[in-house]
Amino acid sequence: MAAPQFRPPQGRPAPAPGLLRRIDAFARLAFPGFSTGFLMVLAAAPVSLPSPVFAAALPCVFFWSVFRPAAMSPPVIFGLGLLLDLLTLAPLGAGVLVLLGVHGVAIRFRRFLARQSFLAVWMAFCGAALGAAALFWGLQALLALRLPPFAPALHAALLSAGLYPAIALVLARLHEAMRQAETAP
Fold first, then answer.
1. Which of 27, 51, 95, 130 has its Cα between 20 and 30 A from that of 38?
2. What are the angstrom distances between the C-alpha of 49 and each of 57, 96, 127, 155, 171?
3. How far is C-alpha 79 from the chain's CA centre?
4. Mind listing the pLDDT tens digit for each residue in 137-168?
5. How confident is the model at residue 3 (pLDDT cuts 50, 70, 90)?
6. Between the CA of residue 127 and those of 29, 68, 160, 179, what are the distances in Å?
7. What secondary structure does DSSP assign to the chain, as a single string?
8. CB neighbour class for 111 (10 Å; exposed up to 12, middle 13-18, buried from 19)
9. Is residue 176 exposed (0-12), middle (13-18) or buried (19+ Cβ within 10 Å)?
């Protein structure tokens, strides 16, 4: 009778579960949310720009929602939206709905956007930024029962679109480093 043929195991063997590996996995999972919140708090420092908090938050949420959606989950977006509302003194809930809307759009078109060039992703972000600024302006008008000027919302969208390449460059390098750390033995 012939001996059974030896078959090597499929795929890479799973690493041994240890405390340091769990901490590392949690840190990679929590990094996008914490770094976005930290950038929002830094952007809230008094400078001459009218709304850098919104312009700093939107590219981070869009980027992480497209390229690492598990780390930028709706509860994390909710917390970042509340932080946005508190830092910008906007009506509570406006920033939450705007960031959740951007997250939803990014998740919806994630498979398409992840395969596109940087320019295509940037143009998609510019459209999302204009829509987010218009929604933010509309929610502020609805909740305040008066029409605020549209120029600050347009400025926030343009500033956000202008900041996206610089923020995306840094986040892409961090994302690649995180991906390499995940595939390391």
1. 130
2. 15, 22, 22, 9, 23
3. 12
4. 999 899 888 999 999 999 999 999 999 999 99
5. low
6. 28, 20, 11, 28
7. -PPPPP-PPSSPPPPPP-HHHHHHHHHHHHHHHHHHHHHHHHHTS--SSS-HHHHHHHHHHHHHHHH-TTTS-HHHHHHHHHHHHHHHTPPTTHHHHHHHHHHHHHHHTHHHHTTS-HHHHHHHHHHHHHHHHHHHHHHHHHHHTS---SHHHHHHHHHHHHHHHHHHHHHHHHHHHHHHHHH--
8. exposed
9. exposed
- Tokens of residue 8, six digits: 């090597």
How does the average pLDDT of the chain come out, rounded?
Answer: 89
Amino acid at 25: A
